[in-house]
Design goal:
254 residues, mainly beta, three-stranded mixed beta sheet, 3 helices, 15% helix
Length: 254
């Protein structure tokens, strides 16, 4: 069965509250959604596992950056963690390579059962140091994940030099046929950081991808630039700096 590449021309919001230094920003971002295990119907501008203006490579996901194994890695993680209920379609929601460069602060593996119900989400987090860690998000009884339900995970991975490795995440995944809304609420005592990703799901077209490149040029290079700009603003405001600790020994946690 073939599947159609989808383009989510969305927005991301980050708001830091309750800390000595507060900060908030919002900007546009482009994600692609596809089934990496099925033949793909995609516009001529897009390339899969080969060079192109806009591309998505398996080696960028499912394992260390540049050494990923794509959906095969996801299947192994689900089996190792006893999550056999999510044995149906797997979808990848990620930012693509643009002009050969890629950086995904967070991408998502959406794991369904054979009836097409979302049971498990793997949030694949990458920091600017090149480290990666994945959080397994699911209910203890593996019941379907509803859009208004909260899934918890302890923070074990260093992301920002202005946050410690402590506290926890609350995830919400509202994945509908026409829209994606994801909320990640980080809490550590009174400190809070809310991050969201939202946007409509539409079939990807070459014209739409060209428009995205014109509105948000350089793809993930732009994302990295914005990350460093916000880090500079926090440093300028006097936010406490945390040195990078060693990444966790396990590459997946709950």
């Amino acid at each position: 069965m073939s599947n159609r590449l989808e383009h989510i021309a969305g927005r991301t919001f980050h708001g830091r509250r309750g800390a000595a230094v507060e900060n908030a920003f919002s900007y546009g971002v482009d994600y692609l959604l596809l089934d990496p295990e099925a033949p793909l119907r995609a516009p001529w501008l897009f390339r899969r596992n080969r060079a192109g203006l806009v591309a998505l490579h398996d080696c960028d996901h499912g394992g260390p950056p540049g050494q990923g194994r794509g959906a095969a890695w996801v299947r192994e993680v689900l089996a190792a963690q006893g999550l056999g209920a999510a044995d149906g379609q797997i979808l990848l929601l990620a930012q693509p390579r643009v002009l050969g460069h890629v950086f995904n602060p967070v991408s998502f593996w959406l794991c369904h059962d054979r009836q097409g119900t979302l049971r498990v989400v793997i949030a694949e987090v990458t920091n600017t140091y090149g480290d990666r860690h994945s959080y397994l998000c699911h209910h203890d009884d593996l019941r379907p994940i509803g859009g208004d339900e909260v899934l918890h995970a302890a923070k074990v991975f260093h992301v920002s030099p202005f946050q410690g490795v402590e506290g926890s995440y609350d995830f919400r995944f509202d994945i509908r046929p026409g829209q994606v809304v994801i909320r990640i609420d980080y809490r550590a005592g009174e400190r809070r950081l809310l991050a969201t990703l939202s946007g409509p799901r539409r079939p990807a077209t070459s014209l739409g991808l060209i428009g995205a490149m014109l509105r948000r040029p350089f793809g993930s290079r732009r994302v990295l630039g914005l990350i460093h700009w916000q880090a500079f603003k926090l440093w300028w405001k006097g936010a406490r700096f945390h040195h990078r600790p060693a990444p966790p020994a396990q590459d997946v946690s709950r």
